[in-house]
């Protein structure tokens, strides 16, 4: 099990969460990403939300959490928890 740490930065109403892993490579490892959207009015989004995984010596490209626009309309809604599995090849 890799160890990790994270940092959270806020820019206006957008939070940037960076997760750093201490393992040298990602290939073949599925990562479960859980997002929690606030219950504050207007907190949902239909934007393309993506993650970048950072390792000790490498990082992935942007990995979208919702592949298409129809999925995005159901994800990241107000007061909702969404889970995604990101496969790194």
Task: Offer a quick outline of the entry.
By secondary structure, the chain is mostly beta strands.
Q: Could you characterize what this model shows?
A:
This protein is mainly beta. The chain has one domain (4-87). The protein is 7% helix and 40% strand. The protein contains one helix and seven strands. It has one helix spanning 69-74; strands spanning 4-11, 14-21, 30-36, 50-51, 53-54, 63-64, 81-87. The strands form three sheets. The chain has a three-stranded mixed beta sheet, with no helix packed on it. It has a two-stranded antiparallel ribbon with strand order 3-7. Strands 4-6 form a two-stranded antiparallel ribbon. Strand 1 and strand 2 (14-21) form a beta hairpin. It is elongated. The model has no long low-confidence stretch (mean pLDDT 76).
Number of domains: 1
The radius of gyration computed from the alpha-carbon positions, rounded to a whole number of angstroms, is 14 Å
Distance between the termini: 18 Å
Q: Report strand %.
A: 35-45%
Structural class: mainly beta
Widest beta sheet: strand line-up: 1-2-5
- Helix count from the secondary structure assignment: 1
Q: Main sheet, how many strands, which sense, barrel?
A: 3 strands, mixed
Range of helix content: under 10%
| Uncertain runs | none
Shape: elongated
Features of this protein?
40% strand; single chain; 1 helix; 89 residues; 7 strands; three-stranded mixed β-sheet; mainly beta
Which SSEs are present, and which pair or pack?
Elements: E1 4-11, E2 14-21, E3 30-36, E4 50-51, E5 53-54, E6 63-64, H1 69-74, E7 81-87
Parallel strand pairs: 2-5
Antiparallel strand pairs: 1-2, 3-7, 4-6
